[in-house]
Write a structure and sequence with these properties.
Blueprint (H helix, E strand, L loop, with lengths): L14 E2 L5 E2 L1 H7 L34 H14 L4 H19 L2
Antiparallel strand pairs: 1-2
Helix pairs in contact: 2-3
Length: 104
């Protein structure tokens, strides 16, 4: 069984987000601007999570070439991403951010 990854900064166990990137919850919350934190309680009495950690999403359906899907599955497995859809989503996000930063 693998040992859990530990944060270098605080030593707490790290987790993977939906884009397969490692993060430490305590360190991430410390880096968030307090204006983005929602300090109200939900119905169960727990504090809501920062909106930065859970951006709104919308389900979409697109047709992709079968060869592209097979390649995405293969690359996702190679990179250790459990779902190829997450891998495609990560690639799309990184590409959009890169393209948007070049437009300035």
């Amino acid at each position: 069984m693998k040992k859990p990854k530990k944060c270098r900064k605080c030593g707490i166990e790290m987790y993977r987000d939906n884009q397969a990137k490692w993060f430490c919850p305590d360190c991430v919350v410390d880096e968030i601007d307090p204006r983005f934190l929602d300090e109200t309680l939900d119905q169960r009495g727990n504090l809501k999570r920062p909106c930065v950690l859970e951006p709104p999403t919308k389900q979409v359906s697109i047709r992709l070439a079968v060869t592209d899907l097979e390649l995405a599955r293969k690359l996702a497995r190679r990179k250790g991403v459990p779902k190829y859809q997450t891998y495609i989503k990560t690639l799309l996000h990184e590409s959009l951010v890169k393209e948007a930063s070049g437009e300035r």
